[in-house]
Amino acid sequence: MVDFDNVNLKDFKIENIPDSGFYIRDFISEKEEQELLNKVYSAPKPKWVTLKNRRLQNWGGKPTERGMIAEPLPSWLKDSIFSKFSQLEIFNNCSKFKLPNHCLINEYESGQGIMPHEDGPFYYPTVATVSLNSYTILDLYKRRTEEKLNLEQNVTNFIPEFSLLLEPRSLLVLQDDLYKTYLHGIEERKSDNLSQKNIMNLSDDVNSDAILERSTRVSLTYRVVEKVMKVGIFKKNT
Fold first, then answer.
1. Which residues form the signal peptide (predicted)?
2. Which residue segments constitute the domains of the chain, with CATH numbers given?
3. Which of 70, 86, 97, 203 sits in a 20 to 30 Å window from 234, CA-based?
4. 115-140 burial code (b ≥16 CB/10 A, e <16)
5. Residue 170: cis peptide before it, omega within 30 degrees of 0
6. Which of 55, 69, 57 is nearest to 225 (CA)?
7. Nearest to 117 by CA among 57, 197, 54
């Protein structure tokens, strides 16, 4: 495990990619990982939203153009995570918040993925993702104007500029250009040949020719929603 008292985020910068990406292996322990998985899967059934290629849970509120009616994040999403976020000062540049107020939980079964996309204007331009239970490959695509306008039509023609290996219990932080001008996505596949990807964060102990088999992956994506509404504004005057 990393000694978070003696490091800062810059120590984990991914080299030779646009600004700024940071990757920390073993960000949480196996025990913490299992505790988080237990909480995810014990959430009330209505908390799950099932989509075509994955299912998800929203915690902290639902972001909209008008703003988000904030709900407190449960302690289990914060206890083993937020102290490390604070020590690494991941969200310290956010003008209103120093810690996330929203967490999106995605479950990807083997063979599932998500098309290239951007996180959008609702969020402060920093995203921190914790991976649980399985690895995945995250592909990064340089966005062109015509691709943004016709994303659905052009997605099959996208070629990743580079990729990142996200291992179980790891943390990935994307900021700056990687957040603002790149799309990110996960191909729908059950295994990955690492030699066929331009992976920029392979550790020395990972075989670059390995073929990895995916299992069910759960991701915790932490962000700051800056526009927050108070519940009271919806109450009628009496």
1. none
2. 19-231 (2.60.120.590)
3. 97
4. ebebbeebbbbbbbbbbbbbbbbbbb
5. no
6. 69
7. 54
Alpha helices (H) along 89-175 = 145-149, 151-154
pLDDT category, 149, cuts 50, 70, 90?
very low
Distance CA 130, CA 86 (A): 15
* Residue 29 bridge partners (DSSP): none
Confidence bin at 16 (pLDDT 50/70/90): very high
User: Residue 168 carries which side chain, given as an amino acid letter?
Assistant: P
Cα angle 113-117-118, degrees, rounded to a multiple of 5: 135
Helix %, strand %, coil % for the chain, to 5?
25, 30, 45
What's this model's pTM, rounded to 2 decimal places? 0.91
pLDDT band at 4 (very low <50, low <70, confident <90, very high): confident
Q: Which two tokens stand for residue 9?
A: 């985020």
Distance CA 26, CA 203 (A): 12
- Identify the residue whose tokens are 């994303």: 151
Give the pLDDT confidence score for residue 238 in this predicted structure.
Answer: 37
> What 3-state DSSP class applies to 183?
strand
Strand order in the sheet with 182-186: 114-117, 182-186, 136-142, 162-166
Token pair, residue 83, equals 């102290």
